[in-house]
What does this fold into?
Amino acid sequence: MIFLHKGLDPQTNPWHYLTKSREKLFQIVYLDEYIQSLEEKQPNHPLVIVLKPLLEKDQDILRQNSSKWYKKIKQSRLPKNAKLNFLVVFVRWLSARFPELSGEEITQMIDNLPRFEETKAYEFFSTFEKRGEKRGEKRGEKRGQKRGEMLGQKSTLLKEIKRFKIMNQKGDLDDITFHKICAPIKKDLKKISKDIREMIKRQEREQQGDY
It folds into this structure.
């Protein structure tokens, strides 16, 4: 069983008991400790690099090294499909660490992405930004982009909650851990939903004023 860090492990039975068995029937892995140990042995391991946006606490370091890390994943010997998934995950986690940035700004941070428009990560960002841009043509480009970005962030949060919910239903996450992980996500979701509603109301009032 894998936990992001030791603080998330409730150490409940039966798995906590099984970890003490001589037969090593069960193993608990704390991801931050495991990745740190792996990085000491293999600093360029794809698993080490793809988790940088998740585990690196210093955002300045993320900004400075995101391009280098992305290229290392791209140049790795991973199978084609696995490599694509790693690249998409890297970009998604990077965007989660910088929620104030648009998809275009994230790509600029990574810098020099060859044919990025053909990747799944680009599709993920552009779907909602295009909607925002269309609205922006009618009521101003900046306003449309802002709304599109907010819709994209809301969609991301909903997908994350859904993913953890499926894990919980399958038994991969116990209820306590599930609620601990989802609590801050739901808080962010509530806030951005409120911001979107307020933005829509403001636009409706302005449109009524035009008439």
